[in-house]
TrEMBL record:
Example of a GO MF term: phosphatidylglycerol-prolipoprotein diacylglyceryl transferase activity
Family: Belongs to the Lgt family.
Involved pathway(s): Protein modification; lipoprotein biosynthesis (diacylglyceryl transfer)
GO biological process, one term: lipoprotein biosynthetic process
Membrane topology: Multi-pass membrane protein
Subcellular location, principal: membrane
Gene: lgt
Lineage: Bacteria, Pseudomonadati, Pseudomonadota, Betaproteobacteria, Rhodocyclales
HAMAP family in the cross-refs: Lgt
Known EC number: 2.5.1.145
Entry's localization field: Cell membrane
Organism: Parazoarcus communis SWub3 = DSM 12120
Protein name as annotated: Phosphatidylglycerol--prolipoprotein diacylglyceryl transferase
The protein's role, per its UniProt record: Catalyzes the transfer of the diacylglyceryl group from phosphatidylglycerol to the sulfhydryl group of the N-terminal cysteine of a prolipoprotein, the first step in the formation of mature lipoproteins.
């Protein structure tokens, strides 16, 4: 059995300026997006993506992730708290970023990018889908460092079960690390291999939606549920699981249509 190391959330303090680990994880995520994006563009030159395109995608994506992720956390998961503490909405360095909100923010940002640059929406999302999971892994590691989003108690004698002393003395699943491994590394491997050769437009996007939704849905059984707008456990499912269901269904629908050659 392990105990959470209780890291200092501040990685480096320079006078009045503090650099938080959570912020560094986001910086790592954006850096990986650019590096992997350029590798992906080189291995698939027929897609026509240049380093300048990737830099522009990053700019739009950063805005979508930060604005959408924060608003998603406020609206989907903790509306009562942020209504009582409105200034906390701006404190993104403390954590509290919703994937589903960030996902919707990125989709909107990619649509705006496509409108401006005359690119097909699904071609954009197909290109960026394999670049996203490593960033998700970095974000979950940031959650672990911050000591937030801890797992459910376990009665199993797991050598990696972890006690979070500020919560209680119960051994819990380190669900942040489960998610980093599943939605992060495993999903990255699947999508990186799947996107290595030509696929019908929308297929890689569908694989991302179905893959992320399924892995997140499963991981939620090991994670203490967020309160959410649907209640703590509605019909036995968490808010995040309810939000994953349409992702999975739409992802499967996309894959089915692309396999049948119905996407343009």
């Amino acid at each position: 059995m392990l105990e959470h190391p209780q890291f200092d959330p501040v990685a480096l303090a320079l006078g009045p300026v503090s650099i938080h680990w959570y912020g560094l994880m986001y910086l790592l995520a954006f850096t990986l997006f650019v590096v992997l994006g350029r590798i992906h563009a080189r291995r698939r030159p027929e897609l026509g993506w240049t380093p300048q395109h990737i830099d522009d995608l990053l700019f739009y994506g950063v805005l979508g992730v930060i604005l959408g992720g924060r608003l998603g956390e406020v609206l989907f998961f903790q509306p009562a708290y942020y209504l009582a503490h409105p200034l906390e909405i701006l404190a993104v360095w403390k954590g509290g970023m919703s994937f589903h909100g960030g996902f919707l923010g990125v989709l909107l940002a990619m649509w705006l990018y496509g409108r401006k640059h005359g690119k097909n929406f699904w071609q954009i999302t197909d290109f960026i889908a394999p670049l996203v999971p490593t960033g998700l892994a970095a974000g979950r590691i940031g959650n672990f460092i911050n000591g937030e989003l801890w797992g459910r108690p376990t009665t199993l004698d797991l050598p990696w079960a972890m006690i979070y002393p500020w919560v209680d003395a119960l051994p819990r699943h380190p669900s942040q690390l489960y998610q980093a491994a599943g939605e992060g590394l495993l999903l990255f491997i699947i999508l990186w291999l799947f996107s290595a050769r030509s696929r019908p437009t929308g297929a890689v996007s569908g694989a991302f939606l179905a893959g992320y939704g399924s892995l997140r849905f499963g991981a939620e059984f090991f994670r203490t549920p967020d309160p959410g707008i649907f209640g703590t456990l509605t019909l036995g499912l968490s808010t995040a699981q309810w939000l994953c269901i349409p992702m999975i269904l739409f992802g499967v629908w996309l894959l089915t249509r692309t396999k049948a050659g119905q996407m343009s």
